[in-house]
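Hi R.,

As promised on Friday, here is the backbone we talked about, encoded as structure tokens. Could you run it through your design pipeline when you get a chance and send me back a sequence?
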């Protein structure tokens, strides 16, 4: 059973009952493939992401989450700013009742060789996926727009499952 539900412009998304949650995300790319993780919290696929700790900045969060979720160690110089995703329609609802508006500062990292990876505690599997095959994966709603922005900026054609609730 999923422990979290992610919403993006969904008409039945619950109202947040907590302050916004600030997160960092990292699109990790190598050889025209993106690294996806099969998430335990919603059984969908996503990119590296996680909540910002009070004692860190966004790059430090992206680096920490990348290592925790994939085993890949990065330096701040390997992160490239992608975009701030702060749309109020980005909601996550946890089984225990906490509901947050989610704000992601997203980065991307382009690697020269596919590194060895190690699946973190919050993931079921890691997989390098060609952009042309993203439509074969159920991507977490609040990660779809991040991947689409990366593809738009890099002029990569990628199609994901249509979401009828998107603006």
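Update: got your reply. Pasting your designed sequence below so it's all in one thread:
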């Amino acid at each position: 059973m999923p422990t979290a539900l992610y919403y993006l412009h969904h008409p039945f998304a619950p109202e947040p009952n907590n302050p916004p949650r600030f997160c960092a995300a990292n699109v990790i790319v190598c050889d025209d493939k993106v690294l996806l993780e099969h998430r335990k919290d919603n059984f969908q696929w996503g990119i590296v992401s996680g909540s910002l700790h009070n004692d860190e900045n966004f790059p430090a969060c992206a680096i920490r989450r990348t290592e925790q979720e994939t085993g890949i160690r990065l330096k701040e110089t390997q992160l490239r700013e992608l975009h701030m995703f702060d749309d109020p329609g980005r909601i996550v609802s946890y089984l225990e009742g906490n509901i947050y508006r989610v704000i992601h500062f997203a980065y991307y990292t382009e690697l020269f060789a596919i590194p060895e990876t190690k699946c973190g505690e919050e993931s079921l599997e890691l997989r390098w996926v060609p952009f042309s095959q993203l439509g074969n994966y159920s991507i977490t709603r609040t990660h779809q727009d991040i991947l689409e922005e990366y593809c738009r900026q890099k002029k990569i054609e990628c199609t994901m499952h249509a979401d009828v609730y998107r603006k």
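One thing I noticed while checking it: The radius of gyration is 15 Å.

Thanks again,
M.
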